[in-house]
Design goal:
0% strand, 5 helices, disordered N terminus, transmembrane helix, mainly alpha, 121 residues, single chain
């Protein structure tokens, strides 16, 4: 698909409409965004298959391994999902925010079940 001349130089974000305001300097959000820059660049530069395969392996291993090992793997996955959700939170609609909260909650609930502290009937 050919790009029009008047679109040259515009970022993809500007074409999507108004963007959320930048976090004020010194805020927690700004600090988390700055600390997250290197890991995000690493994920961006990794081959496209690495992230989905890693997530799938962590999830399946977390479900397969009983006890604390499975719970730790699922907790790591939930923390990763929560981190990504936090970084992109201002851009989400209410529905998208709810979906991210449900995802993190379900993975954490599975982690709790893997500890063996709660018996499933």
């Amino acid at each position: 698909m050919a790009e029009r001349d008047d679109d040259v130089g515009q970022s993809r974000d500007s074409a999507e409409g108004p963007q959320p305001a930048a976090a004020p300097p010194g805020s927690l959000r700004r600090k988390v965004e700055e600390r997250s820059a290197v890991p995000l660049v690493f994920l961006h530069n990794a081959p496209s298959w690495v992230l989905p395969v890693t997530v799938a392996v962590l999830f399946l291993a977390g479900l397969a391994l009983q006890g604390p090992v499975g719970a730790i793997l699922l907790t790591v996955l939930a923390v990763f999902f929560a981190w990504l959700a936090y970084l992109t939170w201002p851009r989400f609609s209410r529905t998208e925010k709810a979906a991210r909260c449900v995802l993190v909650s379900v993975v954490l609930a599975l982690a709790l079940l893997q500890t063996g502290l709660f018996a499933v009937i």
